[in-house]
Amino acid sequence: MSTRPSPQTPAALPSLGELFPPLGLVVRAGELALRPFADQDLPEYTALIRRPIFEDPDSPQVFPWYRAEPEVRVREALRFQWRLRCGISPESWTLPFGVWAGGRLIGAQDVSAVRFAERRTVTSGSWLTLDAHGNGCGKLMRQAMLVLAFDHLGALRAESAAVIGNAPSYGVSRACGYVDNGTEISTMPGSNEEQQRFLVTPELFRRPDVPVDVEGLTPALREMLGA
């Protein structure tokens, strides 16, 4: 009789979301799904940032990073995504969400904080490809982010900014309940444009008409964010 031990069934490997909690976070609102970019999303992401985002490529509203040649833009965008992951800590973090509509990537929505446990303040930025403008996605993805920030992370204020004269961005902010909060000179590398600042609190927030579901906000992720 053989004494060879029977083969063992290998244990299931943990998911990326279990290994690195931000990658398990998903926010759903209507047809939109927001989740931090994982490596498997990056080919679709880089294809997206080669496409038009701005009607006027010479407008001061154009992000400095978008003005680079496409190959440089793609390379730097990848470095940016990996750098954000490495930098997540309770002292400072950014969650860079991809925004999918009906399963198709249409843009990005980020949310950031510095010393969140003490300040309870988030900032945000976003963009959509040009063909996704004008159908309410910009407003809904901002509202979904604010539900995450206010209802699930415990933020007490959210701030945003847009280059002076950026009417579509102003419109999204005001539709979500933001109020004017002074002006500033952009801190984005490569830009010295004047910006209108906006502020919203849970009391001012104009909530979406559809439910917002948040999955994957685990204790481990809360610890990483200081929430």
Topology readout:
Blueprint: H1 16-19, E1 26-29, E2 32-36, H2 42-48, H3 70-86, E3 92-101, E4 104-114, H4 116-119, E5 121-128, H5 137-153, E6 157-163, H6 167-175, E7 179-185, E8 194-200, E9 212-215, H7 219-225
Parallel strand pairs: 5-6
Antiparallel strand pairs: 1-2, 1-9, 2-3, 3-4, 4-5, 6-8, 7-8
- What's the total number of strands? 9
The N- and C-terminal alpha carbons lie at a distance of: 59 Å
CATH uppermost class: Alpha Beta
Q: Which of globular, elongated, flat, extended, rod-shaped describes the shape?
A: globular
How much is the average pLDDT?
88
Assembly type of the shown chains? Answer: single chain
Q: Structural class of the secondary structure composition?
A: alpha+beta
SS strand fraction? 25-35%
* Rg, alpha carbons: 19 Å
* CATH fold field value: Aminopeptidase
| Unreliable segments of 5+ consecutive residues | none
Write down the domain tally: 1
Q: Identify the strand order in the major beta sheet.
A: 7-8-6-5-4-3-2-1-9
- Second CATH tier, the architecture: 3-Layer(aba) Sandwich
Organism: Candidatus Brachybacterium intestinipullorum
Protein name: GNAT family N-acetyltransferase
InterPro entries: Acyl_CoA_acyltransferase, GNAT_dom, Ribosomal_N-acetyltransferase
GO molecular function: protein N-terminal-serine acetyltransferase activity; protein-N-terminal-alanine acetyltransferase activity
